[in-house]
Amino acid sequence: MAVTPVVLCLNRAGETVAHQIAQALGAPVHGRASRVDTADVFFANALDHTRDLFVAGTPVIGVCASGILIRAVAPVLADKTQEPPLLSVSDNGAIVVPLLGGHRGANRLARQIAEIMESTAAVTTAGDVALGVSLDEPPAGWVLDNPENAKACMAHLLSGQGATLSGSEADKATWLQDLPEGDTVSLICETAPTEPVGNQLVFRPQRVTLGVGCSRNCPPGELIGLVDELLKDANVAPGALAGIFTAAIKGDEPAMHALSDHLDRPLRLFNAEELEAETPRTQTPSEIVFAEIGTHGVAENASLAGAGSAARLWHPKRKTAMATAALSLAEEPITSLAGRGPGRLSIVSIGPGQSTWRTPEASKLVADAEELVGYGLYIDLLGPFAAGKIRSDFPLGGEEDRCRYALEKAGEGRNVALICSGDAGIYAMGALVYELLDRGPDEHGVSDAARRVEVVSTPGVSALQGAAARAGAPLGHDFCAISLSDLLTPREDIIKRLKAAAEGDFVIAFYNPVSKRRRTLLAEARDILLQHRPKDTPVLLASSLGRPEEKLRYRDLAALDVDEVDMLTIVLVGSSQSRLAQTGRGQRMYTPRGYARKIDGDLA
Question: pTM for the whole thing?
């Protein structure tokens, strides 16, 4: 699925052009707050906002000076093969400059914008300028099997040499037909396996669809072996496959995902009604299969559904003890995949909320998601990243409902992001998601469809890490975390853990230290710790970490006052070895690792 670009507008001078481009592309306008009158989303800092979008893989069209965009993304430039398109457009729309991602859609997008604005696309990529085509960026429906050879072949063509176009699918490669003729470079358009040699490039038209089925818990090797044999006999290279298609109820089979990984092709799903509609075109309908899942076939039906109404069944169903496979052939390369992808739930940890503490992976998962689920404040902390997304806000206290809703929506085939502050795996939603998946049918778990979704998690900056970084290095030696909330943990268990941590002389991070009704456990914890460590043990109170209202203060353990602490505060209590060091910016807390003792011992 192509990612919709974002049009950035930094001032009123470019506002008309920005909205004209956005309307033509079906893209949102993100405007600089106080400097733009109308926008879908407003942002405060142009450099930070551009960088966040870029890191998340979002194509960016900035109606602004090129230098602004260059300065924004310069710190995060790494792999040009993974970078999204980045373009600048002059305020009057007269010049469109693709800055990055030329061979990943930027050049094509620049020409599209230039056509909209009746202006000039300042494309500087050599192949596009001299030849009108980039060999490493084939159009939708085509793939290049050996992109590593593209640079050398382009160099030959740019030096004035020519190319030959061959293969059984050459007549469909209209985008290659205007290249200069010659025998230096060979461009092969073929669905059959071909081993390129020398200056050969092999292009695959994705006309073939693979339909597969399997019994429950089919060994991945059995399905992969069946498909490999079918492709070999059909003389089809994996690159010529548009996708792998099957029944929705098979979306959770490990064999299906192993096959998708093995062939590096996307997996797409159809419900029983969609598959049954293809039965008149199949060769081996089965009443047994119909009785089980509501369609007379899976492999043949799915391959036909994926290839479209004009396609033909090419290789009928083959089967093993637990797997089936079939191939269909579309008339033209497939540019848009039918069916739906397997549902996915991303457990996204956004840290304290500020974008600079959010990982690129988290930003990418949010950008890819169709729907955002979470406590409303946490979704709000995403700022512009939440704009245009379906969002389902849940109140505090609705954690189980929140996770169940997210899983069920993913079970419908959606790409859902469950937004969590801090790190979702630390006193947060991560464990609850897996607990719901692990519950039996009579334990108020989730539906079978929800159990079939892919679940991924991303790490985040936890309150523990954020507080430690702000404090200095209090976690330099052994530490632990204890939640003082007795809503889910019996009070006696909390006391037992407090005593063990105190005796073990751990640095302790207290999560959920107080609430409106729960005011005594933190005081009890203080008194227990005072039995095992000095009264002047340093304590950090860190509130609203990473937000504008962030507040840090140090206290001695004996002077720890419960009334200074609220639910937005994490309490870091040092061990008996923790100290406060004076720096140019005030005191910083640290816990020695023991290096000084080691050095003294070595010298002795």
Answer: 0.77
